[in-house]
Amino acid sequence: MAINRESSNDTAIRLRIKRDGKYVANKNGATDLQDFVMACTVQEGIDSAAIQAQIVIQDSAGLINTLTGSESWEILFQTGNNEAVYNLYAYNIDSRARNGQSEAYIVECVSIEFLVNEATNIFGSAKKLYQKELKSKNIVEKILKETIGTRKSVFAEDSKNNHNFIATNWRAFDTIYWLAQKSVRSKSPGNNPQNGFLFFENRFGYHFKSVDMLIDEINQQSYSGKSNNKTGKAILYKYTYSQKKSGDEGNDDMRIDSISFPEDRNYLSRLRNGSYTGWSAAFDPSDFANSKLSQDTFAALQYNMSNNDGIWKSMSHLGGGKNPIEFYGNDIKKLMSTPKRIRYGVMPNRIYENTKTTNASQAKTQYNELPYLQSYQHLRIESLKSIQLLVNIPGNLDLYCGYGVEIDIPMTRPKGDKIERDRKYSGKYLISGIRHKYDGRSLTTEMLLYKDSIPKS
Question: Which of 160, 276, 292, 449 could serve as 186's disulfide partner, Cβ 3.0–4.6 Å?
Fold first, then answer.
């Protein structure tokens, strides 16, 4: 249910507390605590396995004295276009201060699954735990639905490879992160494998997907229809950076309030960290008996983010544009092509495998692929961060981390009588992080956006 609002940011909020499955009420039977709320922030990101919230409370009625720590907090936002409900658990009360007969404090909340994860460990052989169904999709779904017990949707991309491992008292989410490091996409375009998986939560549910799959889905997002939390499909919104005009308030919802550039053309730190090029090596720890590495067990691969390297061509790209590196001068590109760091990966030593059934060619393939996959994963994440924007827009609860949004930014200087579109900073972006900020009346949405390419024209 939407509300009528005077400006594009106006928002209604409802805050209720549940204890033992029932809403907590006062003596008059009221359950809504919206009058206590001074501010509220809800955030999600592709680097987080939980939705988080911070609720700023002004309490002159002794609310804090009734809290036991076992309550869930239900936050409902309503804007002119949509609404969203978040059911989270408080895990901390921060910045508590008293002034006279009133107290102010911040209630920090998180998804219940994140708390369950802290009290849940996995121990044993993957073959026994997951009935020999050792692909990533099956393991991730079983961990979330059976081990953690979530009722939320799980959108997991399958892997080409099996995961035969022994979990030694790992936390549930740590096991999923381990799988993300080891998974290879089941369907990779061309002959080169793709990896670089992420695990995160948004309002749709949990996602275990490769960066390339996220980009492929963004490229297919449509402006029409409605977002569907059951299928995990979201519509594509387009925002324009332009001045708001009197008499044109109906379009203010789709205008950018402010925009900043968190990191723009900072190649110095990337050169220092070997983000553009370097060496990737894999070794077998079972050959360390004499502190030696032989040529047979040491394979090094030089990786490079330039177009000349096959890794860039093997990636999916937003809009299918050009590599931002190609817009630097030749002197800087020469520096970027100089290897700086060596990244090491440890091979499974295979000493417990049955030598009669072990495929020797498979072992050799692992030695050859690990340096490449390690390079690909590193460059996949680094290339995604090539172009970054921090954008503030009127509150939109139908935007989700891991999905796309289109940004239209004009050039600062007109060309003749025309104001052209900024080709570098306009286009489709991946929403890396999103924060909904409520200040007591209005809702603003802040997005951290990533893009890995520049349109060709």
Answer: 160
Which secondary structure element, helix H or strand E, spans residue 180, and what is its range? helix 172-182
Q: What pLDDT does residue 352 have? A: 45
φ and ψ of 361, to 5 deg: -65, -30
pLDDT band at 246 (very low <50, low <70, confident <90, very high): low
Cα within 13 Å of Cα(430), Cβ side: 29
Say if residues 217 and 155 touch (Cβ distance below 8 Å). no
In this structure, are strands 341-346 and 277-283 parallel, antiparallel, or unpaired?
A: parallel
Q: Is the pTM of this model over 0.85?
A: yes
C-alpha gyration radius of the chain: 25
Question: How many angstroms separate the CA atoms of 55 and 40, rounded?
Answer: 4
User: How is residue 429 written in tokens?
Assistant: 């972006």
From the list 23, 31, 107, 18, the residue with the least C-alpha distance to 71 is 18
The Cα 22–Cα 296 span in angstroms is: 64
Given a contact cutoff of 8 angstroms between Cβ atoms, the answer to whether 303 and 375 are in contact is: yes
| CA–CA gap between residue 228 and residue 220 (Å, rounded) | 15
Range with lowest mean pLDDT among 210-214, 243-247, 264-268, 418-422: 243-247
